[in-house]
Every structure is written in structure tokens, then in C-alpha cells.
Amino acid sequence: MTQFLPPNLLALFAPRDPIPYLPPLEKLPHEKHHNQPYCGIAPYIREFEDPRDAPPPTRAETREERMERKRREKIERRQQEVETELKMWDPHNDPNAQGDAFKTLFVARVNYDTTESKLRREFEVYGPIKRIHMVYSKRSGKPRGYAFIEYEHERDMHSAYKHADGKKIDGRRVLVDVERGRTVKGWRPRRLGGGLGGTRRGGADVNIRHSGRDDTSRYDERDRDRDRERERRERSRERDKERERRRSRSRDRRRRSRSRDKEERRRSRERSKDKDRERKRRSSRSRERARRERERKEELRGGGGGGDMAEPSEAGDAPPDDGPPGELGPDGPDGPEEKGRDRDRERRRSHRSERERRRDRDRDRDREHKRGERGSERGRDEARGGGGGGQDNGLEGLGNDGRDMYMESEGGDGYLAPENGYLMEAAPE
């Protein structure tokens, strides 16, 4: 395909020119042969510096040592600042400290979103309030989280001091104490290394998690009440859950029982239907059996009526030809009794189904054919006996009931069956 490209594209596939041959360069300096062999450093030892003239080695500071040093320096600076502030701190001459110190209540750990009006509503329950001073940061203007509340009466301040400590305001439990800067000699605030006074547990070894005084029975009782209420709610919830589970189980049990009852009723209905069908089937079978038995008896009675037929003439005599073979006399095959029986049989057969009618017709045809064969054999025997001059009058082989009686037709070509009067052909000799 490249031969069909234009010349400017074929030039891109053209090989480059071969690299020109250049004579080898001289050997590199390290490849050249040195006349002076390699040697050690012994000739240069005199050029080294004397160890006695070298300065002593310096030890570098590690990271842990550097962090410890900075922390120690910070503590020292803070101590110097605290000492300086302690010399300048005088709560009695503080312009921000106003009002009566013995009527002023200190409230700490206040939520930053709590307003002065909310504090007033919460602490007015102990007595009338004269003034509330909330402390704000001078740089950012945000609240610092504590305030001073001055009551009009000292007893109200003591009531709030005893009962308001640990009260939850806007989701936080506040800490309540008296103003100790102007009432306790030598007391220092926390920022200057002090604490909340002797009635507070301020040390790390005796500090407690909840706010309160040495007398913590109120808070213990409150916690016990709170735990008791929580346990009661949990027990009530557990009882409700158990009641709901029992109710659901009872509903399921009733549902299952209803479904079982429905299934049992359905099965009982099916069993009753099956019993009814079986009873009808047995009754129909019994009726069919009785009907077949009656038909069999009627057929037997109809076959026995042929015994009253007129006796045939002597052997060799042909029957008279006065009329057709069917008109043999009142007691012959076409007599009144035989016709009545045929009508009854036809009437009964008309009520059967087509299949039973066909089956009965085939059965009658087979029975008639067999009887015809037996009658033809006996007729031949009689004819054979009459030709020999016997005196049996042609009645040999007949039974007492006359069911096997037959009559020869004209010319001896056939015989007439006594049951239905049909003309059957005789079997060839």
C-alpha cells in the first residue's frame, strides 16, 4: 500500500543516511598507562592536623529535649506573668466590681447562647435581682461563659447558692458560687493560679465530674431519682414491647386457627362430596346390577316360552307352505306373548345410553348365533335319524324347558329361532 502514497509521504518512510565512520579518539586520562604506581596515605600523614589542636565535638539537641525545654520556658514565663498580675490585682479597687459583694452570686459554665433575660428568668425564682453583669471578651466581644448576679437581699443569694447549683440552662449545667474576690482574704482567681475556694473540690486528686459542694447528697439523690425514672421508662417500654409481641402472637395464633378451621371445613366438605359421589356410584351400580338381573331373568323366561310350540311332523316332512315362516300360530315365535316381551325389552332399551344399547345388541347377536349353531347341528342329527327310519319323532336333544327347540324352514335351507323369530341360515353339512 505504501507504493500508492504521494512522494511527500513516501519521503517520511525513507531510511536515513548511514552513520559516518570516525577514527577513534585518544585514550581517556584514566585509561592511559601511569608510570607511577598506586600507593597508600602514609606519605601524606604529615599534612594532617594535630588532634590536640582540634576543637571538642559539640552535642546536638534532640526533639524531645527541645520540646521539654520550650515547655519549661513557657511555664517560667507564665509564672513571671502571674507574679506581675498578682502585684497589680486588687479586687477592692476594681472598677468593674460594683455592688455589695455579700449579695452577689457567681454563675459559671453558662451557655454562650444564653442571654441576660434568660438568666434573670431562671434566677428570679429565688428572689428579686438588682443587677446582672455578664462578662464579654474585650477583643472579640463574645461572652466568656460566666456572669455576676446581685440580689437585693442576702438571704435570696444564699438560697440561690444552695439550690441553683447544677441547674440546667439551655442544655448546660451551670456552676454557682458566692463572690470570693472581695469576701475571702488571700483568694485568687483561676487565671492567677487559684480556684473556687475551700467549699469546692478543685484539686486534680479530689475533683469530681458533676458540679456541687462537699454536701453532694442533693445531687446524689437527684441522680438516683433520674436513674430510677430512666429505669421506669425502660421497664415500661419493655412491657409495651412484650405486650405487643404477645398481641402479635395471639393474632398469628388466631389467624392460624382460622386458616386451620377453613382447611378442615373444606376437607370435610370434600369428604362429604366424595361420600355422596361414592354413595351415588354404589346405588347406580346396584340399580344397574338389579336391572341386568331382571333382564337376564326376562330373557330366560322369554326363551322358555318356546316349549309350547307345535311339535314338528315326522322326520323328513317339510312344514306347510300356507303362509310366511313368521305366521306359525298363536304360540309360535310371533305370538302375542313374544311380541309383548319384545315391546317391553325395546322400551327398556330405549332408556339406556347408546353405548349400553350397542353392547346389549352385540351380546344378543352372539347369543343368537351360538344358539343357531346348536339348533342347526341338532336339526341335522334329526334329519339324519329320520332318514334311517328311527321312531324318535324328531324330539331328540330337546331340554325340559324347550329352550333349544327349533323349526326347519321350507326346503330345509334354514331354521327359525324361537326367541325372536329371525330366519337363520343352516350351517353347511
UniProtKB/TrEMBL annotation:
Q: What is its main location?
A: nucleus
The residue ranges of the RRM domain are 103-181
Basic and acidic residues composition bias: which ranges?
A: 60-79, 207-245, 260-277, 285-301, 336-384
User: What name is this protein filed under?
Assistant: U1 small nuclear ribonucleoprotein 70 kDa
From the Swiss-Prot or TrEMBL record, state where the protein is found. Nucleus speckle; Nucleus, Nucleoplasm
Tell me what organism the protein belongs to: Daubentonia madagascariensis (Aye-aye)
Q: How does it assemble?
A: Component of the U1 snRNP. The U1 snRNP is composed of the U1 snRNA and the 7 core Sm proteins SNRPB, SNRPD1, SNRPD2, SNRPD3, SNRPE, SNRPF and SNRPG that assemble in a heptameric protein ring on the Sm site of the small nuclear RNA to form the core snRNP, and at least three U1 snRNP-specific proteins SNRNP70/U1-70K, SNRPA/U1-A and SNRPC/U1-C. Interacts with SCNM1. Found in a pre-mRNA splicing complex with SFRS4, SFRS5, SNRNP70, SNRPA1, SRRM1 and SRRM2. Found in a pre-mRNA exonic splicing enhancer (ESE) complex with SNRNP70, SNRPA1, SRRM1 and TRA2B/SFRS10.
A GO BP term here is: regulation of RNA splicing
The record's Gene Ontology cellular component field reads: nuclear speck; ribonucleoprotein complex
Record region (Disordered): 48-79, 187-429
Q: Function of this protein?
A: Component of the spliceosomal U1 snRNP, which is essential for recognition of the pre-mRNA 5' splice-site and the subsequent assembly of the spliceosome. SNRNP70 binds to the loop I region of U1-snRNA. Truncated isoforms that lack the RRM domain cannot bind U1-snRNA.
Q: Note the SUPFAM superfamilies from the entry.
A: RNA-binding domain, RBD
Q: Which GO terms describe its molecular function?
A: RNA binding
User: Which InterPro entries does the entry mention?
Assistant: Nucleotide-bd_a/b_plait_sf, RBD_domain_sf, RRM_dom, snRNP70_RRM, U1_U11-U12_snRNP_70-35kDa, U1snRNP70_N
* Residue ranges with Gly residues bias: 192-201, 385-400
Q: Which domain of life is it from?
A: Eukaryota
Keywords for this protein: Nucleus, Ribonucleoprotein, RNA-binding
The annotated regions of Basic residues compositional bias extend over: 246-259
In Pfam terms, one family for this protein is: RRM_1
